[in-house]
Design brief:
The chain has 200 residues and is an alpha+beta fold. Helices cover 18% and strands 36% of the residues. The strands form four sheets. Strands 9-8-11-12 form a four-stranded antiparallel β-sheet, with no helix packed on it. Helix 1 crosses helix 3. The longest helix is centred in the first third of the chain and has 17 residues. The protein starts with a strand and ends with a strand.
């Protein structure tokens, strides 16, 4: 927000924060520091697309730590696959939302056309923890392109199916899919569910 002498004024979570102006690093970063920076870049690149989900629905904010910071910490500790110096997202550890709603159950994925994937799921009206108007979200990750896509409000829970559009550059690539529901009142979400990967 502003700079006065050696202090910086900023807004954070509705509060005014005053902190010391960062000083320029004089020593070159160590190998360990560079590796930590590389891990952070991989995590932030992956999470930035999914921020609209993570900010309100990644469990509960802890003290002064935002949900996005909670997610960042989780991925740095648990969500990376490290092979010597190569750092990638561990697709088996991806979590995008946490909550008390019933999640996506008995899901199937299949290509309808080169640029359309059909997702189906079970909906039993009498089951607890759900509402027919809960909204489906769909998240995609294409490692070979370093690309993520997020579709919010793709369908209602009671629809039991949705079409996921792909872009021409996505065709023929391995794509990982996750899905979940956001409550009809937007107060909570389900846990995200890994739907696996498809390669045409």
């Amino acid at each position: 927000r502003g700079l006065v002498g050696s202090v910086v004024f900023a807004k954070w979570r509705g509060m005014t924060v005053v902190r010391t102006r960062p000083t320029q690093r004089k020593k070159p970063a160590s190998e360990k520091q560079l590796f930590q920076q590389r891990k952070m870049r991989v995590v932030m690149q992956f999470l930035k697309t999914f921020k609209p989900l993570i900010d309100p629905y990644f469990g509960e904010a802890a003290d002064l730590k935002s949900r996005f910071n909670e997610a960042t910490s989780y991925y740095l500790k648990e969500g990376l696959h490290i092979d010597e110096q190569e750092v990638t997202i561990d697709t088996n550890k991806v979590i995008l939302t946490k909550g008390g709603l019933r999640g996506v159950e008995e899901a199937t994925l299949a290509y309808e056309s080169p640029q359309q994937v059909k997702l189906t799921w079970k909906y039993a009206p009498d089951d607890a923890g759900q509402h027919p108007d809960d909204r489906l979200y769909e998240a995609l990750y294409i490692p070979s392109l370093g690309k993520q896509n997020l579709f919010i409000n793709l369908a209602k829970r009671a629809d039991t199916e949705a079409m996921i559009p792909l872009e021409p550059e996505d065709v023929g690539k391995t794509i990982y899919y996750w899905a979940g529901f956001i409550g009809h009142d937007k107060q909570q979400a389900s846990w995200s569910v890994a739907l696996g990967s498809l390669e045409e």
